Amino acid sequence: MSTPCVRAPVTEGEATRQALAERDLLDGDREIDVVDGEIFVPVVDGDAARAAGYEVVVRDAAEREGTVSPDELLGFEPSYGRLGDVVILDEDDPERARAVADAVVESDVPCETVVNRASKVAGEYRVREWDVLHGDDTETVHREYGHEFALDIAEVYFSPRLATERHRVVEQVQEGEHVVDMFAGVGPFAVPMAARGADVVACDVNPRAIAYLRENAARNGVADRVTALEGDVRETTADYDGWADRVVMNLPHSADEFLDTAVRLAGDDCVLHLYDMAHEDDPFGPSERAVRAAAEPAGYEVEVFARREVRSYAPHELNVCLDVRIRRA
User: Fold this and answer.
1) Are 212 and 151 in contact (CB under 8 A)?
2) Residue 77's domain spans which residues?
3) Separation between Cα atoms, residue 198 and residue 178, nearest integer Å
4) Which residues contact 123 (CB under 8 A, 6 or more apart)?
5) How much is the pTM?
6) How many domains is the chain built from?
7) Do residues 167 and 132 both lie within one domain?
8) Per residue in 142-186, pLDDT tens?
């Protein structure tokens, strides 16, 4: 049957499938196909997939046979996400959470562990508590755009929903660049940037995140280009003043508090990727004013060359990103 399919390199297959699933575009009744290094992922709405930035082609896609989905077992369609072989639920009712977990395990959804969110992200390390409903291991390996990331969801922060945004930024990196990732986590920016030939200094206050970062750099063959620094970036990077061609600032609730450090790290011509939370009435103004207040007194000219609404975070509140070039005047 002719079906709209998103076409992507096979190395980006799992990240593409997850991103489409999160947008409710994945056609789970059709088989995913791989041909000559390309993956074809069936979608329920080709126009919506194109609007989301994907390449869409129409081709024959076979119906899936012999698979059992959670909704068939439950009688309703549950909402869940996947991170590696961990299935993540967000259910307020414990009985409903248990029913969904049992259905996921009984279905053909591949998983080793099923967890339900038990708290909001909190604390200095931005982690949350989980109710483990199946399995006993919250450690997993997540695959994203051809790279592997080991992590424990109970010990580090990681959002698979930002895969497309991370890839957008990573694609801007040129071989030989000097990059500082100020809040690196387990390395989803740092590792692929190093794979593109950059030298990356990656910082995080969470010692478990730094341990996973080092493991992931080695796992992906870029340990020689990633320097992992444990601690507050304001205190660990004194040796890198004026070194950076690019600075990643992915700490949306408070990254603006670190702009003076970003400017200190910047070379004569540097790109900042600043993530922030902002009200929908003025999503970019506060961040732009903060960058100018930090960079212009230090002798930089400021050019905002991209403004991105990354996702909706809360009612009337957006997670946004500014791509900013600062140059010595």
Assistant:
1) yes
2) 70-137
3) 6
4) none
5) 0.82
6) 3
7) no
8) 989 889 999 999 999 999 889 989 999 999 999 999 999 999 999
